[in-house]
Amino acid sequence: MLEAGRVRIGDRVAVLGDTVSEGDSVYVDGVPVERKAERVILAYHKPLGVICTTSEKERPNLTDVIDYPDRVFPVGRLDKDSTGLILLTNDGLLADELMRGRNDHEKEYVVCTDKPLTDSVVQAMEQGVPLMETMTKPCRIFDRKGKEFHIVLTQGLNRQIRKMCEYFGYRVTSLRRIRFVSVTLDGLDEGTWRVLTEAEARELNEVCKSN
Question: 98-113, pLDDT tens digit by residue?
Fold first, then answer.
């Protein structure tokens, strides 16, 4: 394209070896070349009632509650009645890798049910539950205290934890995600968001590359 004279930097035709400075406008066939937006990853502590979408058809949605200047979209979902950690990004490839079930990315939740889980239910749930014409992947359940427990999943079927509990006759009364891979809710108040640190973003990258 350079040799054919199709590229311009400002008002002049670009040639091989030209460099582009910060304030320069670049055109190909007269069409401006837009600067690619820098990648951003946000962590948001979702409260009850917020719907995990950017669609204007459902309210209140993530666009309503997160005042960020660039367009970002959620990595996966939490249902309206659940709270906790949601990642948002403008990087479609990263989001794809994080949501792909075969990559076994861990997500940790704190769950309360209407009655304590029995040992036999825990053992059966950890091995897999027949749901939605499939068998859920093995999971880990730990830190059981009365009606509360922690569970780690490596997949994200629709309302999976609630349906797993319902299968054994339990009703979930509260559900909060506290970790997505290596990112946690630590220090993030409900209803607030933050930009991931470079170290956190780099770690997510490395996890995705290893799959």
Answer: 988 677 899 999 999 9
Written as one string, the DSSP assignment of 15-76 is: -TT----TT--EEETTEEPPPPPPP-EEEEEE-TT-BS---TTSSSBHHHH---SS--EESS
Record the tokens describing residue 7, joined without a space.
């590229």
Instruction: Report the catalytic residues.
Output: 79
* 109 CB-contact burial (10 Å; exposed 0-12 / middle 13-18 / buried 19+): buried
Q: State pTM to two decimals.
A: 0.82
Tell me the per-residue pLDDT of 6-62, one tens digit each, with 9 for 90 and over. Answer: 999 999 999 988 988 878 899 999 988 877 668 899 999 999 999 998 888 899 999
User: What gap in Å lies between CA 106 and CA 178, rounded to an integer?
Assistant: 11
pLDDT over 90 (residue 209): no
Residue with tokens 């670009």: 14
In what order do the strands lie in the sheet containing 12-13? 12-13, 7-9, 26-28, 31-32
> Contacts from 1-7 at CB under 8 Å and sequence distance 24+?
1/28
Closest CA to 149 of 179, 125, 117, 123: 117
